[in-house]
Amino acid sequence: MTDQDPIVPGPVEALREIGFWLERERAETHRVKAYRRAADIVARLSDAERVRHERAHSWQELAGIGPKTAAVIEQACAGTLPPYLADLRTAAKPIGVPGKPLRARLRGDLHTHSDWSDGGSPIVEMMSVAAALGHEYCALTDHSPRLTVANGLSADRLRRQLDVVAELNQRLSPFRILTGIEVDILDDGTLDQEAELLAELDIVVASVHSHLRADSATMTKRMVYAVANPNVDVLGHCTGRLVTGGRGTRPESSFDAEVVFEACKQYGTAVEINSRPERRDPPGRLIQLALATGCYFSVDTDAHAPGQLDWQGYGCERAVAHGVPAERVINTWPLADLLDWRTG
């Protein structure tokens, strides 16, 4: 996924790469889906069916493939780099602060979603892109069951997902998919998944998704109880704010940040710097407070689509701006060190 790559992709790869660049640039969802849907349609064809449509130039006979996607398929089949893909590659701007020490030292991403919950792509596609971006590891953290709007995973579904991840890890090695979850912090601070199952996972991100307008004392107690849980590794998007985007805006939750961050320090829970442009969470003053408190951090994308996996630069930019050193960011660590810290 670089404009320096001279290899002309096949039609499926070209369509998916177009989807990647559109997602990365936050294009309208229907545009992204058109290219990803077309890629899936072509990928499902038999060799004989592909040859027939290629010879007959009949791609638009397939439901779900329109003039623009058919043109990309035709060009890729002819061994030509589709001009639209070439334009997207050329137009892509660096995100955040590429080349700076923190961005260069990141080894993985600890907060991502697949189509098992509210993500838009299969696990294998998300993780293959993560590997292509240079990650050594990436945590799959689909939602927990109470978040029904996000198709959260029951214990049984999560166990089935662990089997899928185990098989994919054999295929994608040496890249490593870390087993994980973004578990809901319930109203009383307990976690929305079986404790024994959480203990089996590589990474547990705990986040508040409900009753975000509770009073400060209630929210503080709720968050402290959660970060003190030995199964929790990362406190996700701690204020819950939304600053822009299609979902509108939302103010920060009210809580005693000094108390919460002190608990994160004491119980070894990293504070997430969420890279999503609509979140930018925590705000700068809280990043500085967490740093002064002595917390660790995790710079994560919270990606729900492959193109969003390249958003880490946004989080790095904010971390660098507020003086967070790379050694305090747990996903700059080698995998063995990260897992030792998680179980220590």
Describe this structure as you would to a colleague:
By secondary structure, the protein is α/β, with parallel strands linked by helices. It has two domains: 11-91, DNA polymerase beta, N-terminal domain-like (DNA polymerase, domain 1, Orthogonal Bundle), CATH 1.10.150; 101-343, Metal-dependent hydrolases (TIM Barrel), CATH 3.20.20.140. It has helices at residues 11-24, 29-44, 47-56, 67-77, 83-91, 101-105, 123-132, 155-172, 195-200, 216-227, 257-267, 284-293, 312-321, 335-343, and strands spanning 108-109, 137-140, 176-184, 203-207, 234-235, 270-274, 297-300. It is elongated, with a radius of gyration of 21 Å.
Q: Which descriptors apply to this entry?
A:
344 residues; alpha/beta; DNA polymerase, domain 1; TIM Barrel; 2 domains; seven-stranded parallel beta sheet
